[in-house]
Amino acid sequence: MLEDKTASVQNSPIRSSPLSRRIHDYETDSPIRGTPPPEGGVRHRRRSSEKSTPRARGSSRSRTRAKEEVEISPTAQIYKNLLILEEALRQQNAQQSKLKAKYTIFLVSMLFVLLLTFYVSFVDGGGGGGGGPSYWRFSCQVVGSIDFLTLVLYYLSGEYNRTITRPRKFLTYTNKGIRRMNIRLVKVRVKRVDRLLDMVKMCLLFPTIVLKTQCQYVLVVFPRFGLVIKLRNWLLEFEAKLQSSSGGGVDGVKVILNPRVFSTGTREQWELYRNEFWNKETIRRRRAIQRKQE
């Protein structure tokens, strides 16, 4: 049943992404391994007298990799595709959230300018001199008219629907599309403590980068200063930890299986597979950041 529900995920073009290659490398160490070899099978060792050429070793390694790919169980393959789909949906959700935040700020700013110019033009009577309207009031009327026309065109052109309404209903539209696969996309509930820790990390990140830069300048003048070298190495590790989120890789949204279709064991196995992958992926990213900064 699980194979049929995720057939469209296996044919998805996002399988060639870098994440899919890392997931494939992770599969050999995952809790859901490939099928065991048949009982009674005998592996014949190569005789020591046979010559091992580089071409033969290369073909042997390619056959070994092909055999590992064949031995991947269907369940592990489906979980891999679900991870790729989840990461793609997470990136789309992040893009939609940024788009909504940017245009929400734009809309609020335009409304604030419109209210301010309306107040100066029609409510505030202490404008310029005696009879007619002052230049300031006339300028506010022009700005208010342009602002109002911009807001009207912004709404009538459909940009309001594209930049604010659709990103707000991203989960609803996505769940309608993946309903036939018996999976759902839900928001990850972040605890207040984790949210506070993320804010503290953001506050500590800039001083850490500044202090690390100062240590690098000192090492240019004194390249064998042991205390500064230890401090720089510790700052590199600390910066990598600060740049990693508290939720690992499961940020924003995640994919869950439909409890009406899948058993509790299958759902727990999927959660275990995803958590172990993102734990290893977080460690790999920290090491990559450290190697890049060194």
Automatic annotation (TrEMBL):
Cellular compartments per GO CC: Nem1-Spo7 phosphatase complex
Residue segments, region Disordered: 1-69
Keyword Membrane: yes
Biological-process GO terms, alphabetical: nuclear envelope organization
Pfam families with a match to the protein in the record: Spo7
Protein keywords: Membrane, Transmembrane, Transmembrane helix
Transmembrane segments: 103-123, 135-156
Organism domain of life: Eukaryota
A GO MF term: phosphoprotein phosphatase activity
Matching PANTHER family: SPORULATION-SPECIFIC PROTEIN SPO7 (PTHR28249)
Protein name as it appears in the record: DEKNAAC105164
